[in-house]
Amino acid sequence: MEGVNETFDVLIVGAGPAGSFAAERLARGGVRVALFDGRPAGEAKACGGGVTSKALKSWPFLLEAGGRAVTEVEMVSPAGEGVRLKLAEPFAIYSRCAFDSYMRARAERAGARVFDRRVSASEKKDVDGSWAVRSREGESWRGRVLVAADGANSAIAKRLAGPLSNSDMEVAFGYRTPLNEADEAPTVIAFLPGWAGYAWAFPRLDHISFGIATAQDAFEHKALDRMLWDFMVGYFRERERDGTSSPGKGIPLDGEGELEERLRASAQRYAARIPGLAPETFDARRAAGDDWALLGDAAGFADPVTGEGIYYALRSAELFAEAYLAGDVKAYERRWRADFGRELRRASKMRRRFYGRFWGGPFTDRMIKLARAHPGIRRTLRELVTGDQGYVDLKRTLARRALNPF
């Protein structure tokens, strides 16, 4: 075929954690893999960058990627009440530029061929059954298996598995502000009053990622953006009261407008869609065929309650690689459903209740009130934050610890 550069066994579009880890695992198994990274150099994915302790324990090499360890989290209810959770198992917060670059470098060292190209897949396979991807410059590559790991907006995933509706999507947006690496900035998760979602402050090595995640079908940018700026200003005001350094250091406590102006001068905005699939979508949507697969966000693999997706990106990559190396790509569908499908589906069913009302008020209010007073509930909440407590047995765990907190 004219213009074809090379032929590979597997073409992976998207070099985030899912695509890079799949490429690494396949290359180590002797597979000829092409990994395509279409993002401009230095452009990070819009993401809080939190990697749960569950993920760190599953793949200890992630600790080499240079994240900031988190041993304490403050959670704030919609009514403004807070509880501090000291974590028995720390999690880590990464710059997504650094994290993704680390994962991509591992794939390249394992033998995967990495191309800095934005590519699109052909509508149909070639006459010999191969897939083709093409760059804007006219280059093309062929492969027997096509893998989409290019995020929630993946055009390949839409074609192979069908588009997702707004009700199956969430929106994350926010700002990055500078941070001195030596600063002990707190990690904060604050549930939104009147909205299904939360705001976060995640300190990384050289900046703080502030953001909000909420459902796309109820998204109102103006109101939520104002809420996020109020959260950011309040975060730095609290740090001033504590006597720690911040971008607002030296500004009088009654100078909210001046503090916000100073933050706006240095903040970098970001935004993205993330999957939050309904139970029915999990039941109906496939992530694999005989010669194609979807990984991570492209497959819809993110926690519908929290939006956390890095664990599922890595695990889906691992399961796909196992299926491919066993000679049955289609078996990946069965593998992910048996491994974490039930957990994500349960989280999807719980999402409305989690952000709904309970005993006459928001459930998140009640949850934090109980956690402040009850060590068993506090322990369960800690384990939810770190990824060690799943949704499938959450009710049973809460009931047991309500009677026996230790």
**Main beta sheet strand tally, sense and closure:** 8 strands, mixed
How many beta-strand elements? 17
* Low-confidence runs of at least 5 consecutive residues: 245-255
Name the CATH superfamily classification of the largest domain.
Answer: FAD/NAD(P)-binding domain
Specify the helix fraction band: 25-40%
Q: Give the helices and strands as they follow along the chain.
A: EHEEHEEHEEEEHEEEEHHEHEHHEEHHH
Mean pLDDT: 87
Structural class: alpha/beta
Q: What's the Cα radius of gyration?
A: 22 Å
Globally, the shape reads globular
- Can you count the helices? 12
**C-alpha termini separation:** 67 Å
Q: What is the topology, as strand order, of the major beta sheet?
A: 3-5-4-11-12-13-10-14
> Strand fraction band?
25-35%
| Tally of individual domains | 3
Overview of this structure, please?
- This protein has helices at 17-28, 53-58, 96-110, 155-161, 221-242, 256-266, 279-284, 310-325, 331-354, 363-373, 375-386, 394-403; strands at 4-13, 33-36, 50-51, 68-76, 82-93, 113-115, 119-121, 131-135, 140-148, 169-178, 187-191, 197-203, 207-215, 268-275, 292-294, 357-358, 361-362.
- It is of the alpha/beta class and 406 residues long.
- It has 3 domains: 4-65 and 95-165 and 275-353, FAD/NAD(P)-binding domain, CATH 3.50.50.60; 167-274; 358-403, no CATH class.
- It has an 8-stranded mixed β-sheet with strand order 3-5-4-11-12-13-10-14.
- Helix 5 crosses helix 6 (256-266).
- It is globular.
- 47% of the residues are buried.
